[in-house]
Amino acid sequence: MLRIAIQKSGRLSDDSLNLIRECGISFINSSLKLKTESTNFPLEILFLRDDDIPGYVADGVADIGIVGQNVLVEEGMQDLTVEALGFSKCRLSLAVPKGDSYSSVEDLNGKNIATSYPNLLQAYLSERGVQANIHTISGSVEIAPSIGLADAICDIVSSGSTLISNGLREVEQVFKSQAVLIANKELSEEKREILEKLLFRINAVQRAQRAKYILLNAPNDKIAEISKLLPGVKSPTVLPLLEEGWSSLHSVVNEDDFWEIIEKLKASGAQGILVVPIEKMII
Ligand code: ATP
Ligand code: MG
């Protein structure tokens, strides 16, 4: 049985649980329980505070875990990383009161900066030759300037609305983060095999999230042209329509590319284009 540590309640929790479910792993989740076991995969889930996850995985209390890179790198444990997961994207940024003048990071020399990420901030400032006084606080960092605790802050930002509502202006991006899967370095052979199975499923889910199944009708003399636009996994499927001279073409397309090629498809005579989600994709 492999043990995974995920955040009990917070910004990583829902996406972490969804990823496990999308991998076809079922479990009963009670918000009161600190651990649960899957009913159809050799996985036990521990629910922890995100800050504790890297340490527990490094110590082997949990075998693997899901945590933000910001926490992982702050704790100096980035070497546990197995794979980036693409959710909980955010950035660690420096912000100053919006009325303060600011032209470059050198303006922070000698200033007091409040943050929950002293190591990431220190590394950033040292690289730029800036010396500031870092005040480590564990929460509500954004109110530090307004209560006179600091001249600037360094905190997690996603939309920026928290900064704005506290009269702050984002001035530098210190670190970019997303959720990552981490693993203990000394997993037994059995556990490593379960992890491989899990990674295989995670990759299938992630590939499917970007891919779309596309179906369209095309005149037979345009199939070669359209196939070049839609190479798919191997090559498109072409099926005859009942109507003479027409075919239905099926393929897979990356969502990011879809909007680029849609005009070209129409110009090539494609009609009745359907784009549908894919749940899993194994290539
Ligand atoms: P815990 O109680 O588990 O210690 P926390 O309050 O430290 O929780 P959260 O605010 O739930 O942590 O954030 C968890 C992680 O989610 C962060 O470390 C970061 O990687 C990511 N994150 C934080 N804020 C955002 C955001 N606004 N958008 C997306 N991801 C975010
Ligand atoms: Mg935390």
TrEMBL record:
Feedback inhibited by histidine. This is ATP phosphoribosyltransferase. The gene is hisG. Gene3D superfamilies: 3.30.70.120, Periplasmic binding protein-like II. Residues 49-203 form the ATP phosphoribosyltransferase catalytic domain. The keyword Membrane does not apply. Its EC number is 2.4.2.17. Its main location: cytoplasm. Belongs to the ATP phosphoribosyltransferase family. Long subfamily. Its cofactor is Mg(2+).
